[in-house]
Design a protein that fits this description.
Oligomer: single chain
Number of strands: 2
Order of helices and strands: HEEHHH
Number of domains: 1
Largest sheet: 2 strands, antiparallel
Shape: globular
Strand content: 5-15%
Length: 100
């Protein structure tokens, strides 16, 4: 999926919000580091939540890769990380079928 200006802005905003630190392993990165990613909890292919700040978590390359290799564990961790109420609301927004 092609990355556009909105994706770049989202990524920067997530990493700034998280103070350039991986939310999983807590490793700090210098500003604008390529080693820290804005990982999506629910796939970025879901347009309703693609740029939703609740759907982004800063993860280093290793933790982001772990999340893709272990999606069930990643979602369990993400639910704890952002809290069950926020996670469940995000999941509902991501799964809406009416396209709104």
């Amino acid at each position: 999926m092609k990355r556009d200006a909105a994706d770049a802005a989202f990524s920067l905003a997530v990493r700034k919000r998280d103070n350039w630190t991986c939310r999983r392993c807590h490793k700090a990165y210098p500003e604008k580091s390529q080693g820290l990613h804005a990982a999506h909890i629910f796939s970025r292919s879901i347009k309703r939540t693609r740029h939703d700040m609740d759907n982004g978590l800063s993860c280093c390359y290793g933790c982001h890769s772990w999340g893709h290799r272990n999606p069930l564990e990643f979602h369990e961790w993400a639910r704890k990380e952002i809290g069950p109420r926020k996670y469940d609301a995000l999941k509902l927004r991501a799964s809406r079928l009416d396209g709104k």
